[in-house]
Amino acid sequence: MPLLPFYIASAIAAFGLLYILRPSKPSLRRGGAVVALAGAGIFISEALRLAGPPSAGVPIALLIALVVIGLYAAVRVITHPRPVFAALYFIVTVVASAVIFLLLQAEFMAFALIIVYAGAILITYMFVLMLADQGPRDSIGHIDDDSDYDRVPREPMAAVLVGFILLGTLAAVVERIPSTAVLAESSLDQKVARQQSEALVMMPKYLLNIVKRGDASAVSVTVAPNAAIHGSIVQTQVTQADGTVKNIAVDAAGKIDNTQMVGLDLVARYPASLELAGIILLMAMFGAVVLARRQIEFGEDEARDAAGLRRIVLDVPDHERAAPGGRA
Amino acid sequence: MTHLLAASQFGASHAVTITLAMSALLFTIGLVGFLVRRNMILMFLCTEIMFQAAALAFIAFGRMRMDTGGQIFVIFILTIAAAEAALALGLVILLFRRKETLSSEAWSELHE
Fold first, then answer.
1. A97 and B29 in contact (C-beta within 8 Å)?
2. Which CATH fold topology does A4-186 show?
């Protein structure tokens, strides 16, 4: 039963998390952290064992250090008694996963994550946390930061049980990955070469720039009509300044980087989703404006003024009849 | 960077496996946090942890297949997370104005 170690690791991690969450025995918190870390360590090392012996050049140690930092910060987010510190710890998680994105060759997403999450979303959270006055004030008027509802968890036992079941279920996916990944690895180089040459064909100006680097007299370039792509090689027809036409083979390998591929695929493969994302953001903006509008309670007179009606005036002397309140 | 970690030099299966394991653990922490936290703002922060875990899984699977689809989906996750943060925090502010507390238990009479 290959999943058994994962289940045991999940149980250990859940047990440790329970003792981190329990507020009644603060001395046990440190022990719970050690146990939870051990559980997470067993979970990851079991996944690593299934992936086989590490090949040269894999920064496994760096990756594991990032995982530990990210998970520790995430646990602090859900246990820290002060909300502002919890939000700050979330930034640590974001940065750790951004570095993991870098290691997985998603450079653009790594920095977009830091800018959007740590820069924009977390700042919004901080604003709201500071806008909302925290907790009751003590006798000399200082705000008591550690309000009750931030210190005492709700139903830690049930929550940890749910988490443990979820982790056990997810372990089935993690366990199945290594075999699939090794299969995919063998054909990846060819796939990348083909992706890069296809991307190069879709960017004629960029292609011309590359050709100009080798042949400064090139004026225009077209892709040769049939069988133009062989692996990373793109066959092109280059027109030079004096009008002669030459066939030049351009090697696309390494010419197109990850960010260019993402940008190209974003508009070429998923244009409808991109538009939809824009609409969602627009609707969110409208929604936020409507929600944030403060409701003002009008008195009777102001309400009638706003509606363009005459104020109800009783027993007013004659010389005040023409007062400004009486406009129709 | 791209050359340093080119597909053939970097044992992708290890990195992908570790990242997926972290994704599973992070999602679990986020879920547990959503259940145990009583501060409404921090409950939404825990959903952001879960978004983060999903994004990690997408990047890992995208790396495994060398497909940009994974990264592009993370762009949409960021979009949804930003929209969710704006709306959820607007709602939290409204709720806070009504009861002058961030505790989600102040609203527990809704179930009756």
1. no
2. Four Helix Bundle (Hemerythrin (Met), subunit A) (1.20.120)
CATH of the domain at B51: 1.10.287.3510
* ipTM attached to this prediction: 0.88
Chain B touched by A174 (CB under 8 Å): yes
Contact assignment for A174 to B20 by CB distance below 8 Å: yes
| Phi then psi dihedrals of residue A177, to 5 deg | -65, -50
For residue A262, CA distances in Å to A84, A266, B51 come to 35, 6, 20
CA angle B77, B104, A159 (to 5 degrees): 70
Q: Name the minimum distance, in Å, from the CA of A146 to any CA of chain B.
A: 11
d(CA A266, CA B68): 9
Alpha helical stretches, state H, chain A? 4-21, 28-50, 60-79, 83-103, 107-113, 122-131, 148-151, 156-186, 188-201, 204-214, 258-268, 271-292, 300-306
Number of domains in chain B: 1
B 6-45 → A contacts, CB under 8 A: 7-22, 24-33, 35-39, 41-42, 44-45
Residues in chain A: 328
A184: Cβ–Cβ under 8 A, 6 or more apart, which residues?
A: B12, B64, B65, B66
- Sequence ranges of the domains in chain A: 4-186, 189-256, 262-326
Tell me which amino acid residue A209 is: N
Q: Does any domain span residue B75?
A: yes
C-alpha distance across the termini of chain A, in Å: 85
Global confidence as pTM: 0.83
**A28-37: long-range pairs with CB below 8 Å, 24+:** A33/A75, A36/A12, A36/A75, A37/A68, A37/A72
pLDDT tens figures, A171-218: 888 888 776 766 566 677 778 888 888 888 888 888 888 888 877 777
